[in-house]
Design a protein that fits this description.
This protein is α/β, with parallel strands linked by helices. The protein has one domain: TIM Barrel (Alpha-Beta Barrel). It is built from 14 helices and nine strands.
């Protein structure tokens, strides 16, 4: 097996105030997490660059960045300038990930970025961060005067987007669930995209994002896992087609009218999962981590064995943990009453 040394990243924190957020990031660093990665939605979250800048002054090791920014709401030059500033403030710990926008864009009635737009934005941001002169059709070439070598990754789920990311970015976060066929296919597209661009596939960073059910009640696990599976089908039906998973229910567009904003972010994931109770157990099991700490660790080990290597793993908690409250675990956990990051760091990570 290839590279198996990896770090864990968190993408959910206490956003009730900037002070609370910074304290949460400090706690994540103390627990051994390697990355604090913030999703960006201007309607539901404070400004991530500003909050990360404050966190940079009160941490020393953890890497700080976005998972993810997008070229619809931010021009690539704006993102490059902000992340370069954060990199200077943090002493070289900044990290930028691009995506098409999804919820943050749809909430404003805008269209998520197309793949070509995403590629163009990532390339421009990379070149600006490298300090290059870039022809943009202005009187003079564009140049970021405070450029810094910040890694630029792309989050991708579809085969074409994965190949594009491997052609252009420093790394790719694979959002394909954990079915072996989807993981193997994703890695094949990483190799294909890198090779087509004359790059060594082993030089492309690999991130794995897994929705991780925080509850261990079997009934809620099943419902939430079905909602996660439906969310993948909603945005990338290929992830059902590749492993031959069935969708034997109403058209997803019809069901989407009953779920807001989507199956991954619905306020009641048990209710949204019950809407798709036609999904069989194999399908529900193919897209999430769940169960006891031992089961989740086993699922992670198997996924990494399939991909052959990983650099960053993000165990995205669902439902989103409530600040200051323990996660709902029917089984006893140590320490009792732990919040998600403490539970994951003390119970799951040591098993890996």
């Amino acid at each position: 097996m290839g590279k198996t040394t990896f770090e864990f990243g968190l993408n959910r924190f206490d956003w009730t105030s900037t002070n609370a957020f910074v304290a949460d990031v400090r706690r994540a660093e103390e627990l051994g997490f390697g990355y604090a990665l913030i999703p960006w939605n201007p309607l539901s979250r404070p400004d991530p660059y500003m909050q990360l800048a404050v966190a940079a002054g009160q941490t020393s090791r953890i890497r700080l960045g976005l998972l993810l920014d997008n070229p619809v709401l931010h021009h690539p030059a704006t993102s490059a300038s902000s992340i370069a500033t954060l990199d200077e403030i943090s002493g070289g710990r900044a990290f930028l990930t691009y995506g098409i926008g999804d919820t943050a864009v749809r909430w404003l009635g805008l269209r998520p970025a197309r793949m070509a737009e995403l590629e163009e934005a990532a390339v421009l941001a990379k070149r600006l961060l490298a300090g290059e002169d870039v022809e943009v059709g202005a009187v003079r070439p564009a140049r970021l005067r405070h450029a810094r070598p910040v890694p630029v990754w792309i989050a991708a789920g579809g085969p074409k987007t994965i190949e594009m990311a491997a052609r252009t970015a420093d790394g790719v976060f694979l959002r394909v669930g954990r079915h072996p066929d989807n993981l193997r296919t994703a890695m094949a597209h990483v190799r294909r995209g890198a090779t087509a661009a004359g790059r060594n596939p082993n030089d492309i960073g690999i991130g794995l994002i897994f929705h991780t059910v925080t509850n261990d009640d079997p009934r809620e696990i099943r419902a939430i896992s079905r909602s996660m599976a439906a969310g993948y089908y909603e945005y990338s039906p290929a992830l059902f087609e590749i492993p031959g998973l069935p969708w034997n229910g109403p058209p997803v567009d019809e069901l989407k009218r009953r779920v807001y904003p989507d199956f991954h972010h619905a306020p009641d994931l048990v209710a949204s999962g019950n809407l798709v109770d036609f999904l069989d157990d194999q399908t529900a099991d193919s897209f999430s981590l769940f169960g006891t700490a031992q089961e989740i660790a086993g699922q992670l080990r198997w996924a990494i064995e399939i991909t052959g290597r990983a650099d960053i793993i993000v165990p995205h908690p669902v439902p989103m943990p409530k600040p200051g409250q323990p996660i709902a675990r029917v089984l006893r956990s140590a320490p009792a009453g732990a919040d998600y990051k403490t539970w994951f760091a003390t119970e799951v990570i040591p098993l890996l």
